[in-house]
Amino acid sequence: MEFKDYYKILGLARGATQDDIKRAYRRLARRYHPDVSKEPRAEERFKQISEAYEALRDPEKRAAYDSLLNGRWREGQEFRPPPGWDSGFEFSGAKTGGAGERFSEFFESLFGGMGVRGARRRSGMRGQDHDARIKIRLEDAFHGATRAVTLQQAGSDAGGRVALHPRTLNVKIPPGVTEGQRIRLAGQGGQGDGGARRGDLYLEILFEPHPFFKADGRDIHLDLPVTPWESALGAQIPVPTLGGKVQLRIPPGTQSGQRLRLKGRGLPGKTPGDQYVTVQIHAPKAETAAQRRLYEELARAMPFNPRNSVGG
Q1: Residue 139 host element (H or E)
Q2: In the chain, where the domains are located
Q3: Is 84-96+108-209 the same fold as 1-57?
Q4: Residue 132: left (phi > 0), alpha (psi -120 to 50), or beta?
Q5: Most distant CA pair in the chain, distance
Q6: Residue among 118, 97, 99 nearest 108 (CA)
Q7: Reduced to 3 states, what is the DSSP secondary structure of residue 230?
Q8: DSSP code per residue over 12-78
């Protein structure tokens, strides 16, 4: 998938005002509309223009898109959205696209989920619900915590340019929250009309990368390095968990890639998750003559060909 520079498609600089974006779209749409245009590849060009306008006309989507630029991506460059790329941006839930709109894979990878995250709509005069994604530590998901979270609300300044307005909220993170789960903050959404109550704010949870744990639902995964003698002879090894270190029994003859389970050592819940430990056998280098002789003696005493299964 290739990165699309929506400003370049509309012939605009990044500092363009919202009115500039609207004018550029109208001018280009008249020129390339497939019903009237004689330009080559008019239909394809019109689709690109419409997609660029959809991304940039909304200050919320535009602010999030701008955060991806910052010198990191160029038109046509191979692209995959970084995990949690739009975390910290607050969205008012406006539905992406219109009836029958079909945009590129690139657009959908960035904005395709916003209609889902913003699916809650105004009820009567009540304020609109807002949505945002936030990143938290796995340790906070395990123990629970109260954290200050800063969100960026996007709007337009007096000059018609996108302006970010940060606001900081104290968020209570319940123990056992999982990635993708949403936390509701009542009354922290959009303003209501005529004194009606505010909408709610829904925070979708993402996990920050951890140096050695990975989460899958409530289960936690860990790659555990062991020595050849620990795997061959068996051992009791201290293993980190989110709740602290525990002793794990490595059965004699354990093979590299074998997975062991620590029941109930994942994220807490009505049914707690487990921690799965994948064994990785690490052999030390023979750095001295004595160490090399030990390896040679082992090779003579225990002839073994691990490649028999692949015709070795």
Answers
A1: helix 138-143
A2: 1-57, 84-96+108-209, 213-307
A3: no
A4: beta
A5: 87
A6: 97
A7: helix
A8: --TT--HHHHHHHHHHHHHHH-TTT--STTHHHHHHHHHHHHHHHSSHHHHHHHHHHHTTT--TT-B
The pTM of the full predicted model, rounded to 2 decimals, is: 0.82
Tokens standing for residue 264: 């109930």
Strand pairing category for 201-207 and 89-91: unpaired
Q: Which of 56, 63, 41 is nearest to 9 (CA)?
A: 56
Just give the CATH number of 213-307: 2.60.260.20
The amino acid at 246: V
CB 58 within 8 A of CB 94: yes
Query: How long, in residues, is the chain?
Result: 312
Beta-bridged to residue 145, according to DSSP, are 173
CATH class of 1-57: mainly alpha
How far is it, in rounded angstroms, from Cα 111 to Cα 86? Answer: 10
Amino acid identity of residue 212, one-letter, is F
Structure tokens at 222: 């860990």
Give pLDDT tens digits for 50-95: 999 999 999 999 999 998 877 577 788 888 888 888 999 999 865 4
| 273 token code pair | 């998750």
Single-letter code of the amino acid located at 17: T
Beta-carbon count within 10 A of 109 CB: 14
CATH class of 84-96+108-209: mainly beta
Residue with tokens 């004194």: 195
Q: In the structure encoding, which two tokens stand for residue 232, read together?
A: 């061959």
Q: Distance between CA atoms of 115 and 109, rounded to whole angstroms?
A: 13
Q: Report pLDDT digits (tens) over 153-210.
A: 998 888 888 899 999 999 999 999 999 999 999 999 988 887 788 899 999 999 999 9
CA dihedral 271, 136, 62, 12 (to 10 degrees): -130
* Residue range 137-153, pLDDT digits in tens: 999 999 999 999 999 99
